[in-house]
Write a structure and sequence with these properties.
This protein is mainly α. The protein is built from six helices and six strands, in the order αβαββααβαβαβ. It folds into two domains: 133 residues, no CATH class; 54 residues, no CATH class.
Amino acid sequence: MARALNAALGRWEFFWAPGSYSAVALQTAEDVFDKMAYVLANPAVAGLVRRGPEWPGLWSAPARIGAGPREVKRPDHYFRKEGRSPRTAPLELVCPEGVGSVEELRRRLTEGLTEREERAARELAEAGRSFMGARRVLAQKPFARPAPGEPRRGLRPRVASRNKWRRIEAIGRLRTFLTEYRQAWQAFKAGARAVVFPEGTYWMRVSCGVACTSGA
């Protein structure tokens, strides 16, 4: 995605801000609902458009979940016209595990999305502001920079859950993984190629073929 967008804009170097990515493990079905609604409501919460469907970029309507695959066209930029990449690819949005039926997911997601959008509209009105609108969003210059003042060096959570005890339990599992991974990594650097890495190891498994505990 970054390479295609760089090609479309005629620019180079990093597209996203450099640094480690944030991968937050969601612990319960409620946490999954919450984050899905959070993502879909982002255009409204940011004061850009009143409703998600008005967003001129990519936006996945709750009704698309479980509605079968749709063909997505290959971008015109970056890819060679006669290259091996297919001209279209199927994209299917499916119901996450453990959240019930597709109908329940769509209903709850629509309700959560509407609630967040209404709250965003009220907060903007109270501040004497209005939504930017799709036309002004598209008119922005891609090389412009936002005004300074973005908070820096804040917390970067690794797990998320509204349930305090599930969150504590997940943090405990994460600490155990990091301890076991560090020990295995140190042994590997010392030459022990038969060392077994903990479940969840990715890069060392795909790049060096290390053994992992079951389930990795």
